[in-house]
Specification:
By secondary structure, the chain is of the alpha+beta class. It is about 25% helix and about 35% strand. It comes from Desertihabitans brevis.
Length: about 170
């Protein structure tokens, strides 16, 4: 499998935003559930424990990573079923992540949901590694929503690094 990188990088006053978009033939409520319910997040990024809600902190275990690291995930904003923003600090840095979900209102498009994922980066160069990583995780997420095959990380990194280097050059 050779997935095509889709992320784009936009410079901001404080760094850059890494933006990836996925579209699903599924109702927004179902996509939201796959994004926020621990038993469903366990299938694509890892389970979490704690009491969820804006202003709260849950504990996330990333099961697709070596050694399955666990860390605190601060829920900055949560407006179901359309917006989630979280922050996590670990040995690799600060992860400021945001997801927006929208469901098409066009006639005949019932149940088509667009997911816009944003990583707010202080250091734009982080996109070289985090871009391929989020492509992989979002494709894992898609496999949970659609029932499709689970991707292999080896198809994403280092194969997609050049795309993100081009994004860095183009956004400079």
């Amino acid at each position: 499998m050779s997935p095509t990188p889709t992320g784009r990088l936009t410079r901001t006053a404080t760094g850059a935003d890494l933006v990836l978009v996925r579209t699903f033939r599924a109702p927004r409520a179902d996509v939201w559930a796959a994004l926020t319910e621990s038993e469903r997040t366990a299938r694509w990024i890892g389970p979490w424990t704690g009491e969820a809600g804006a202003g709260r902190t849950v504990r996330l275990t990333m099961t697709a990573e070596d050694e399955e690291p666990t860390g605190d995930l601060d829920i900055v904003a949560c407006q179901a079923p359309e917006h989630l923003r979280v922050r996590m600090v670990d040995e690799y840095g600060t992860w400021d992540l945001e997801v927006h979900l929208s469901e098409s209102t066009e006639e005949g498009a019932d149940g088509v949901t667009t997911l816009e994922f944003v990583q707010h980066l202080v250091e734009p160069g982080e996109a070289r590694d985090s871009g391929p990583g989020w492509e992989y995780y979002l494709d894992r997420f898609a496999s949970v929503v659609t029932g499709g095959p689970e991707p292999d990380f080896a198809d994403y990194h280092p194969a997609m690094v050049a795309h993100y280097e081009q994004q860095l050059d183009a956004s400079a």
